[in-house]
Design brief:
mainly alpha; cell membrane; transmembrane; transmembrane helix; Gly_transporter; membrane
Length: 206
């Protein structure tokens, strides 16, 4: 199994957990759990593959849908054991982001894409699944929360990979650096309140 396939499997499973946890907060039935888990798990990778004009990974290998469905069933029967499902969603989502961004970077590198495309594919793979999840479940998308470091984390992680590749480092090391930067920034945002400045409206000049 290739490194990209392993990253995709890990990303699918962890993102599916977050989708199922959001479904539990919305009190959906088991079919709803599976649906939300699947769109969360494969959304970012689907956008990535369509843009890169490569076979969509879960269409080429439906086992990814099975993995996401298993995660949904696990959460359906265990979510009630969690003290704070929202807090759990945030932390698992951070881990999923740190796996999905390197998966997007690896896919773009495999297609011999130039560095701006590598950056965009890393961000798209990491962010679009969670965005779909939150929109469908009528939640405020994590990627758009005021001042929240989320897309920034994905962009910085993909950027770290691009820098390491430019310096001649092997792809596995670049992907590890990508994951480390992405996770460190996301955890810092949640644990220490790291934020970007936000726009504040001012009265127009007379």
């Amino acid at each position: 199994m290739s490194a990209l396939a392993l990253l995709d499997y890990a990303s699918v499973f962890v993102f599916a957990l977050t989708g199922a946890l959001v479904a539990s907060r919305a009190q959906l039935d088991i079919v709803g759990f599976v649906f939300i888990a699947c769109i969360t798990a494969v959304g970012g990778g689907t956008v990535r593959d369509v843009i890169l004009d490569r076979p969509v990974f879960w269409v080429a290998n439906p086992n990814f849908i099975i993995v996401a469905s298993v995660a949904a069933f696990v959460v359906f029967f265990t979510a009630h054991l969690l003290e704070s499902r929202y807090r759990t969603i945030l932390w698992i989502d951070a881990l999923a982001l740190a796996v999905a961004v390197p998966a997007g970077v690896a896919a773009a590198v495999a297609m011999e894409s130039v560095w701006p495309i590598i950056l965009i594919m890393g961000v798209a793979t990491g962010c679009f699944g969670g965005l779909m999840r939150d929109v469908v479940c009528n939640e405020v998308p994590l990627v758009l929360k005021q001042g929240e470091l989320y897309v920034t984390c994905a962009f910085a992680g993909a950027g770290a990979a691009v820098v390491l590749l430019t310096l001649g480092q092997p792809l596995p090391l670049a992907l590890i650096g990508c994951a480390a930067v992405t996770l460190a920034l996301r955890v810092g945002s949640m644990a220490f309140g790291w934020r970007l400045p936000v726009y504040k409206s001012r009265p127009p000049r007379v």
